[in-house]
Input
Amino acid sequence: MPLILNETENNSLQNSQDKIDQILVYSKKAAEAAEKTRRYILWNTVIQIGMVVLPLIGLLIAIPFLLNNLSSAYQGLL
Output
C-alpha cells in the first residue's frame, strides 16, 4: 500500500510541475505579446505626432514666405 501512495504522490508532484511549466510558457508568451503591443503603440504614437508636428513646422516656414509674396503682389495697389 505505501508503494501506491508514493506513486500517487509522485504523479501529483509531476502533474503540479507540468502545470507550473505550462504556466511559465504561457506567461512568457503573454510577456512577448505585451512587448509587441507596447512597441506598436509607441510607434503608432510617434507616427501620429509626426503627422501633426511636421505639417505645423512646414506651415511656420511657409506662411511668412507666402505673406511676403502676397504683400509684394499687392504693393503696387497701395
Summary: The chain has a mean pLDDT of 87. Residues 2-73 form the longest helix (72 residues). Residues 2-77 form one domain. The two ends are 113 Å apart (CA to CA).
